[in-house]
Here is the input.
Amino acid sequence: MASVFQMLHPLIRRGLKRLGIGEPTPPQRAAIPPILRGENLLLVAPTASGKTEAALLPILHRLLTSRRREGVGILYITPLRALNRDLYERLIFWGDHLGIEVGVRHGDTGRGERRRQAAKPPEMLITTPETLQAILPHRGMRRHLRAVRWVVVDEIHELASTKRGAQLTVALERLEALTETPPQRIGLSATIGEPEDVARLLGGRHGVTVVVTEAEKPYRYRVEYPTPGDEDFDLADDLETTPRAASRLRRIRELVEGHRSTLIFVQGRGQAETLGNRLWRLDPLIEVHHGSLSREARHDIEDRFKRGELRAIVCTSTLQLGIDIGHVDLTIQFMSPRRVSTLIQRVGRSGHRLGLRSEGVIIAAYSEDALESIAAIRRAERGELEGCRMHRNPLDVLAHQVVGLTLDFEEVDADEAYRLIRGAYPFRGLSQRDFDEVVNFLSGRGLIEVRGSRLRMTRRGRRYYYENLSMIPDERRYPFINAVTDRVIGTVGDEFWTLRARVGLNVILRGRVWRIIHIDEEGGALYVVPSQDPLGALPGWDGELIDVPREVAGEAAELRERIALELRRHPREEVIERLSGELSADVEAIRAIVEEVEAHLNLGLPLPTARRILLEAYDKYLIIHAPYGERINRTLGCIFDPILSEHDLIYTWWNDPYRILIEATRRLDEYDLKEIAGWLFDIDAEEAERWLWEYLEARFPFGYKMKSIAERFGVIPRGKTLGPKALEELHHRYRDTPIYRETLREALKEKLDLEGAKEIIEAVSR
Here is the structure.
């Protein structure tokens, strides 16, 4: 069979030969013909399978074989500036070889380069969603964008479920309103669940061909649960940590020493710094990489790793995407990846060439962490990934895009603006009422001027538009300070600061329990002292963690149930041996999980499963064991709060993917747990929804979200610090505005799952 490369221009074929590329990869074989035919296309393929070339080679062919126009012909959009830099370095070859000028434009592009692009635009422009927002109304660049015939959105899965994605879809409609003919749209995505939704997001009103290619390279996953040996006690003293933590650090060091190059993924920036600091003391050829570092620092680390000067990088999701950092032998995930898609993308960074095996080791910190990791691996091996949960009609995005349209045209008909925005898939269900309400809000703040049916730009609106190009919230970090030593021991974000921080609260941070003794609202700091009381202690992390979805939590519960069944039939050691041969985990991980299940069974207690909720009480604490994932459990907590408040029985509560922990106002010995279960679950779906809204009205736990949304509406300066009390007051100030409604809509989408919670309650009541 002839290679699809034979369909390409001779210059392109010669370029491939110079690069030593003889045969197309499966994604290239599948995607090149439909792109040559002019079809809009979403290509879903594993990391490092040649997706970029699959999109660009046929586009370059069409550019070379058609009439060249002055202006930007190809617009290549990536979610990260770092990807722009990486892509530009790769495309310089093709630009030089084919005589096509390639340019990059993002927030760090210098004024001189921007002027050059406005005077003489590159034929291919690499940019970000935010910079596209900036140049759409820009007089110098706008005329050059009329020539765009091809739009490529790289790593579209990273944008699809975010407001950045919703914003980008409207930008594509605005671009189409500018161009002579609708540009061909091509999206490139890592392996995802439900790619059809992402295709609709990409295409808007246009049809999109979906091409999905499977991984040809094998993936190998393994969960390890290090346990302390004699050397770990000495190491713990040296590193000022516990022997168990030292054993994990030792094992990571062993893995790093056994490979040439390793990426160590963690849950967030705080964990990256803590782990990186301790590993650096064991091996100085390890660096830390996350979004809070300067661009220069990140580039230096990436380049040193690529040159082989570093053995490992401790990183957050900043290196999860396809930034070229050279060959990676091994991926280590420190603690559970929490989501299947995260696991696949991170492990896919190793063996980053077609045909090489991707190898990933998960270092589990405790038995449930190991269980959850195994659950994620099982779903990955079955190809059961999370779907895309995109935003529907986000009003802050709508506000920004309405103002953008007035800048595009100086004056725009309101009906035409409404029609154009509804062409973007996330806004296809936008009601006239919501549109009019946002228009009136913008007009009232002087961000647009309404004259009859016409919307006109204003000077204030222009300033607002350019100050709010990004939909990424500006989250502040608040330090935990040891009041005894006056040293910072960690940080939390707006979510913890708003919802949890209170004097007297016990917090787990860096493996120890601390009690908050003072909150400095003006300075934005929490002062703590060591505590010997672990009861009710909350983990001191917050919004940096990915929510564990219902499916992963349910898989973990099923595994636990199966282990319980095996233990009823076979001796413990036999169960451990059988499972060790079947599950992708070492013996110690299996042993920890099996022994925990066995201990539970020995107490004569039923095991919590997806079909059985277990209530447990001790002292002032009620634990509702419910393995339904973070969003459902958070919603159940919101529903239970006002119910228990009616009985004056709740002080505070917290949840994780497997339980809801409630701190009561008094000891629970005198209460019948069946009676409490009746209060909580003997309600119907309508009552559950009513209780949720009552909680949200009374407590409104999303002040930190409202602050970000108010910033995006232009009513609060971006980055302004607000204390907990000021955050609590926001919902009163903006109660009858689109800001309030958008906050609730975003919270219901990102933090809660009302339908899932109602389903659970109805199942119990039946």
Q: What stands out?
A: The radius of gyration is 27 Å. Residues 219-381 form a domain with the Rossmann fold fold (CATH 3.40.50.300). Residues 550-569 form the longest helix (20 residues). Residues 1 and 681 are 63 Å apart (CA to CA).
